[in-house]
Write a structure and sequence with these properties.
By secondary structure, the chain is an all-alpha fold. The protein is built from 19 helices and no strands. The two termini are 35 Å apart.
Length: 439
């Protein structure tokens, strides 16, 4: 017992030391006069605006590929569940690679990460462009594993560099920068569908996409230049963070909620276009469903954040996730163009709200600012990635080759609803602990 107590005290001392040294580091950064504007700073924001376009073409817009693989490219040898593993593994690696890339970025390896990730990204795209029909392993290796690692390596440094130039106006800067993510998620599905199903064809379309994204990433890397402040921070290890945070019951329940929510959240996004076509909607209209969803997601990532500071992250995210679960169930009754487009708009808005407010919700569970980064790292690496990994393959297996839509819809809706319930429980526990309703 004494050994456990001593170990616990040691861990608390590590956290306390980390908090003190982080405060010193933050004071140094303030004294170093972060510009909070200027030509150089806004050129960096422009670079961050450009770089998300390739990401969303191959994460949020994966439904375009999923539809093509299920109906044409892998239809003879693979089930929808097996095909969905490509997108889910990619999503898992995008979310989980931040554990490594975040530490490397802090250590000063920004250009190593960005250039290496961009080269791997382009290499994987060209591998997809020379793949053969019905060769599942080629697509899984290139698009699932390779591109997942490439995007994950670049994502954290591309967002983290904003903190080098903005402090007081950081929220505004992040809003401008991440707008590129929404634009990319809306434009790329339209282009990919036009190329894959038009005169260009799949292989040439992927090559065209590689050329476009390669040029955009080159421009972005040239625009972005890190300003590393003097770092006096002594971070606790990931294992120590994990052990400390698992003793915090509200945090553990919230983590469970993120796993359940992510397990169900991406099923409508991955399968919306396929379901529209199976319902008899013409392909010309169905090809716009994912673009509409991502465009609505752009609005959802901005508006709810305006209320977070006043009402609290949990008070904003809980109704959004409950409404998202309700929309999943409603999707079962949709079988026409008007219903599909209305669903795409509403689901895009509320699911985008969840994605946008999630970091603030995780951060609100921290006792000090020094814990926020570690709590986000544990959440995204060990849990959010897991939910994204297992959710869509399970939904694909439930769908089966006969397209039994009610089964994956029920699974997805229950998962998201359960996640919202976990967030509600976490809010209740934190409100009682802190004696406040603004959470």
């Amino acid at each position: 017992m004494s050994l456990v107590k001593a170990e616990s005290n040691s861990e608390k001392q590590n956290v306390a030391s980390y908090t003190r040294e982080s405060t010193v580091s933050d004071d140094y950064i303030s004294a170093d006069a972060i510009p909070d504007g200027g030509v150089r700073a806004w050129l960096v924001i422009l670079g961050v605006y450009v770089i998300p376009h390739p990401y969303d073409a191959y994460t949020n817009a994966y439904g375009v590929y999923n539809d093509f693989y299920v109906r044409e490219y892998l239809v003879k040898t693979q089930t929808s569940s097996q095909i969905s593993w490509i997108g889910s593994v990619q999503l898992f690696l995008v979310l989980s690679a931040g554990l490594v890339s975040g530490r490397a970025f802090d250590a000063g390896y920004f250009y190593h990460l960005m250039i290496g990730g961009a080269l791997l990204f382009e290499f994987c795209l060209f591998m997809i462009s020379i793949s053969k029909p019905e060769q599942y392993y080629q697509l899984f290796l290139a698009q699932g594993l390779g591109m997942g690692i490439a995007i994950g390596v670049m994502y954290i440094p591309a967002i983290g560099i904003i903190a080098h130039y903005f402090q007081r106006r950081r929220a505004l800067a992040i809003g401008f920068a991440t707008a590129g993510s929404a634009v990319g998620g809306a434009i790329h599905p339209i282009m990919l569908n036009a190329w894959f199903h038009g005169s260009v064809g799949f292989h040439s379309g992927v090559k065209a996409s590689a050329g476009l994204t390669g040029g955009m990433m080159l421009i972005a890397i040239l625009l972005m230049k890190p300003r590393y402040p003097k770092n006096t921070r002594k971070a606790i290890s990931t294992v120590q963070s994990f052990r400390i945070f698992l003793r915090d019951l509200p945090y553990v329940i919230m983590i469970l909620g993120t796993v359940l929510t992510l397990a169900g959240l991406y099923y409508p996004i991955f399968y919306l276009q396929l379901k529209a076509i199976e319902n008899g909607i013409t392909s010309h209209l169905a090809f716009y469903t994912i673009a509409v969803l991502n465009a609505a997601s752009a609005v959802g990532r901005v508006l709810p954040n305006l209320f977070v500071y006043r009402f609290g992250a949990f008070n904003v995210i809980i109704p959004c996730v409950f409404l998202t679960s309700l929309l999943v169930f409603c999707n079962l009754a949709i079988d026409n163009v008007a219903g599909t487009m209305i669903f795409a708009i509403l689901y895009g808005f509320f699911s985008g709200s969840y994605a946008s407010v999630l970091p603030a919700m995780v951060g609100s569970t921290a006792e000090t600012d020094a814990e926020i980064g570690a709590r986000l790292g544990v959440c995204f690496t060990f849990t959010v990635g897991l939910g994204g990994l297992i959710g869509t393959p399970i939904a694909g297996a439930l769908l089966s080759t006969t397209f039994q839509w009610w089964r994956p819809t029920l699974f997805s809706g229950i998962c998201v609803f359960s996640g919202a319930s976990c967030f509600t429980a976490t809010r209740f526990l934190l409100a009682r602990r802190r004696n406040t309703n603004v959470l």
